[in-house]
Design a protein that fits this description.
The complex is a heterodimer. Chain A is mainly alpha-helical. Helix content of chain A is 65%, strand content 5%. Chain A has a single domain (10-68, 76-120), classed as Helix Hairpins, CATH 1.10.287. Chain A has a two-stranded antiparallel ribbon with strand order 1-2. The mean pLDDT of chain A is 82. Chain B is mainly alpha-helical. Chain B has 27 helices and five strands. Chain B has helices spanning 2-5, 12-18, 21-36, 42-68, 100-123, 130-149, 153-171, 178-209, 247-258, 298-316, 325-328, 334-343, 348-355, 357-360, 364-385, 391-411, 415-442, 460-474, 480-499, 502-530, 538-543, 549-573, 581-586, 597-626, 640-646, 651-697, 705-727, and strands spanning 77-86, 91-98, 231-232, 239-241, 276-277. In chain B, the strands form two sheets. A three-stranded mixed β-sheet of chain B has the order 3-4-5, with helices on one face. Chain B has a two-stranded antiparallel ribbon with strand order 1-2. The longest helix of chain B is centred in the C-terminal third of the chain and has 47 residues, at 651-697. Chain B is globular, with a radius of gyration of 31 Å. The A-B interface holds A 1-2, 34, 37-41, 46, 118-119, 121-126 and B 701-706, 709-710, 713, 724, 727-728.
Chain lengths: 126, 728
């Protein structure tokens, strides 16, 4: 692959953490989420799976932010890695909003149709 | 009588403002009957139609009195109502124009039209849809008036097509029988073929002269002029044409420029000269040129135009080769046969040629062709008429034959005599048809002469008037038919004396033979119908009755005209010497003779000959059919000539085999090859493609959220993979 990542430079209090491990973990979580979205029929599960995907992304952001901070430590750069952390915070906020709206819609839907199965939600097809 | 009439004629301005009423009355009659006729009682619908025709006749009569009065000036009545087609170098308008020539026609159209409307009130009294009949008749009258009074050839063409339409509607009036509908269709299609020639003629006229107007447009306050306003300047010998000259102005200018007295043809190298216009600045030249690609011989172009126009005339006026529709047109009600297919519409071809006679006079070739076609038609139709059994068929072929005589007259250069024969023929043929209608009416719609006979005692009025009509048709000296036909034949013989062209002699002999046949078949009809024993069934015999007064009155009027028409009107048309009466009364300049005495020498032998053949024909008819008992039966006859004549010389069959059948085969082929396979294939194929494509695509829309999510995911993944590969 084309990326030459410095996998051994994430330092935490002097000890090295494995960036590779973080990314693999994030990939696994993301995949589980994606699988949940595609394969599960319960909308509630789908929403949970969506959260998993978002958090996997958060993990990636956080890991790379940490990596950047370490790499520029010697240059005494106080704001290094800040962007990634801000993005992660943004995503948490947006995900909270999305979950609130999504769940509200779901509850209303359930009250009307008494179902949360995606197979029954085909009104737009007609 | 004129002394009383003249002071009562309205002024020119008053007449010009009322002229529009001539076509308007029949049109309003058509609208009233056409829109509300369904609710009218039968006599009232007939009344509306007849009054419309009569009112039109009265207005026309006033206008004609004005035009023919010498005191009131030579100017005709000419009004332009609105612009019609306007381009940068061509324009034409809606205009009405009565000159001396059209005044004859307009009187025939509205006058005989009125009589026939009156007659129809009686004849059609028992029909289901009287109102429809009178609506059509009035529409026909309107179109015919447009044809006659239009001040440009496009208006004439509109009327020309309009009368064709009415003819179609009226032939198929009893459309429940498919035979009648087919006859209407045949008339329409055959006329279309002729109309193509007419259109070509109009296009050539526009190409060469750049105008379709007959004469220059009317000047406000002064009106138009009957005669072309082109003049020869006495001092400078220059030809002066008016502003915006019409076709007749141009032909007059050409005549003054090129034609010396003894010639009737344009010189081979004639060009369109540049003329000076009238008015104060009289040296403005008119840019008149032959377009490139049309050759450069003006004489040739004029011949071409004349032949094209004549092809149009052969369609409408039922000449060889397009005469086949007229005998079939007898499927219509009898008044229609009388009005449209004998008296007025079929003569429109002759009128059109006379309208442009000054153009035709330039082309000896075209005139010879017209004369030949006329002679052939006259003889051919007369031969067929000899053996027909249907009383209306006999009259139909006789009409074709008489129209042939009119064209003989035109072709011999005696345009005024052609119009004269139109007039006399309108009298006696309308009379004969109406008489035949009266017979058919009395015989409970029987048309076969074998089942008639002995009617002279039971239908005295019909018999007496039809006898007069038959004498006129046979050309017995003294009757109107004799005046016109004898003079036409004399002109042909005179042409032969004059030019020694043997063709004229051939045409003359054909005309004489046709005259003999005419006399024979006419009196065969009279003897079979009115003499001998009545051969109908008892039930029909019981119903035989003389017709009501509405039917008898027109017969009497027409019989008077058929008998005396020659004496009353002959002086207007028959010329003692070239450029005499015809020009004075009709503004028609017949083609002059090289030597004036050629015509005079022809008169006496022709008079003897026509008299002899007429009496001979009548005598032979009397000999064969006069005593009764000798009833023709074509089925038993073994005579080949007789059989051929009875079967109309198989013209219809030949046309069927040569034209109609191949045409149908090709149409069928094209229908399958082009229409169904190619065009339908393309159109339906495109629709089919879209439908099949979308029915495939619609499966993507499952409505299942998970599928969409999967699609988004796989799309993103695919895009990422693509990016990775690209980066490497």
């Amino acid at each position: 692959m084309g990326f030459d990542l410095p996998f051994n430079v994430i330092a935490d209090g002097g000890g090295l953490m494995n960036l590779k491990g973080c990314l693999i973990l994030a990939g696994v979580i993301f995949s589980i989420g994606a699988w949940g979205v595609v394969a599960r029929r319960n909308v509630l599960t789908v929403l949970i799976s969506l959260e998993l995907m978002l958090n996997a992304v958060n993990l990636v952001f956080a890991s790379f932010a940490r990596m950047h901070a370490n790499m520029t430590q010697s240059a005494n750069n106080a704001t290094a890695g800040e962007n990634g952390q801000i993005f992660a915070l943004f995503i948490i906020a947006v995900a909270a909003a999305e979950a609130a709206v999504g769940l509200a819609i779901l509850i209303t839907y359930f009250r009307n149709k008494e179902t949360v199965d995606t197979r029954d939600m085909k009104e737009l097809k007609q | 009588m004129m002394e009383w009439i003249v002071p009562h004629i309205p002024s020119r301005e008053a007449l010009e403002s009322k002229m529009v009423l001539i076509p308007l009355f029949p049109f309003v009659g058509f609208l009233i009957n056409g829109l509300f006729g369904r609710t009218f009682s039968k006599p009232f619908a007939g009344f509306v139609g007849t009054v419309a025709a009569l009112s039109s006749f009265v207005v026309a009569l006033m206008c004609v009195c004005h035009v023919h009065d010498t005191e009131l000036g030579r100017a005709g009545l000419h009004v332009s109502y609105a612009k019609w087609l306007v381009t940068s170098d061509f324009s034409c308008s809606f205009g009405l124009y009565i000159d001396k020539l059209s005044s004859v026609m307009i009187l025939v159209v509205t006058g005989i039209g009125t009589l026939i409307h009156l007659y129809s009130m009686g004849y059609m009294a028992h029909d289901r849809s009287v109102w429809r009949f009178f609506a059509y008749l009035n529409l026909f009258l309107f179109m015919m008036i447009l044809l006659v009074l239009g001040d440009n050839i496009l208006m004439t063409f509109v009327g020309w097509e309009g009368v064709g339409l009415c003819s179609y509607l009226l032939i198929g009036f009893w459309y429940e029988e498919s035979k009648n509908a087919a006859a209407g269709m045949k008339a329409f299609v055959v006329n279309r073929i002729g109309d193509l020639g007419f259109l070509m003629g109009i296009f050539t006229l526009i190409a060469v002269f750049g105008t379709v107007n007959y004469v220059t447009a009317p000047v406000k306050g002064e009106g138009g002029s009957v005669t072309p306003q082109t003049t020869l300047d006495a001092k400078t010998k220059a030809v002066v044409v008016p502003q915006n000259p019409g076709l007749l102005d141009y032909t007059e200018a050409l005549r003054l420029t090129y034609i010396k007295d003894e010639h009737s043809e344009l010189p081979e190298k004639a060009e369109l000269p540049k003329f000076a216009t009238g008015g104060e600045k009289n040296t403005v030249s008119i840019p008149m040129s032959i377009p490139k690609g049309l050759g450069n011989s003006l004489a040739g172009l004029i011949t071409l135009t004349c032949i094209c126009l004549f092809i149009g005339a052969t369609g409408k006026s039922a000449q060889i080769p397009l005469f086949v529709w007229l005998p079939d047109a007898m499927a219509g009600p009898t008044p229609v046969s009388a009005l449209i297919h004998a008296a007025t519409m079929v003569t429109s071809g002759i009128y059109m040629v006379c309208r442009l006679h000054s153009l035709f006079a330039f082309s000896e070739t075209a005139l010879l062709l017209i004369c030949g076609v006329g002679a052939a038609t006259a003889l051919f139709a007369a031969l067929i008429g000899l053996t027909q059994l249907d009383i209306k068929k006999v009259l139909a072929y006789s009409t074709v034959s008489q129209l042939g005589y009119m064209f003989i007259g035109l072709g011999a250069g005696a345009f005024s005599l052609g119009i004269f024969h139109v007039l006399t023929h309108a009298f006696f043929k309308a009379l004969l048809f109406l008489g035949a209608g009266s017979v058919i009416h009395a015989m409970s719609n029987e048309q076969d002469m074998r089942k008639m006979g002995g009617l002279k005692g039971k239908l005295p009025w019909t018999f007496a008037t039809m006898l007069i009509g038959s004498l006129a048709l046979a050309g017995v000296p003294g009757t109107s038919g004799w005046f016109s036909k004898d003079n036409i034949l004399a002109t042909v013989l005179g042409r032969y004396n004059d030019t020694h062209n043997n063709l004229y002699l051939v045409f003359y002999i054909m005309g004489i033979v046709a005259a003999f046949c005419t006399a024979f078949y006419t009196f065969r009809l009279v003897f079979l119908t009115f003499f001998g024993e009545n051969r109908s069934s008892e039930e029909v015999k019981h119903h035989i009755h003389e017709s009501p007064w509405t039917m008898v009155l027109p017969l009497v009027v027409l019989a008077f005209l058929a008998l005396a028409g020659g004496f009353l009107f002959g002086g207007m048309f028959i010329e003692e010497k070239s450029g005499g009466e015809a020009f004075e009364h009709l503004a028609i300049r017949n083609v002059p003779f090289h030597e004036e005495h050629s015509l005079h020498e022809a008169h006496t032998p022709n008079l003897i000959l026509t008299g002899i053949v007429a009496l001979l024909g009548i005598g032979l008819a009397f000999f064969r059919y006069g005593k009764g008992g000798n009833i023709p039966d074509p089925e038993k006859s073994n005579n080949l000539v007789y059989k051929a004549s009875f079967n109309k010389f198989y013209v219809d069959e030949i046309y069927d085999a040569l034209i109609v059948f191949p045409f149908c085969v090709i149409s069928e082929l094209l229908h399958w090859g082009m229409d169904i396979i190619l065009i339908d294939g393309l159109v339906c194929g495109a629709a089919e493609l879209v439908r099949n494509g979308s029915s495939l695509l619609k499966r993507i829309q499952t409505g299942l959220m998970n599928t969409y999510a999967f699609a988004i995911l796989s799309g993103t993944v695919a895009f990422l993979i693509y990016l990775l590969i690209k980066v490497q």
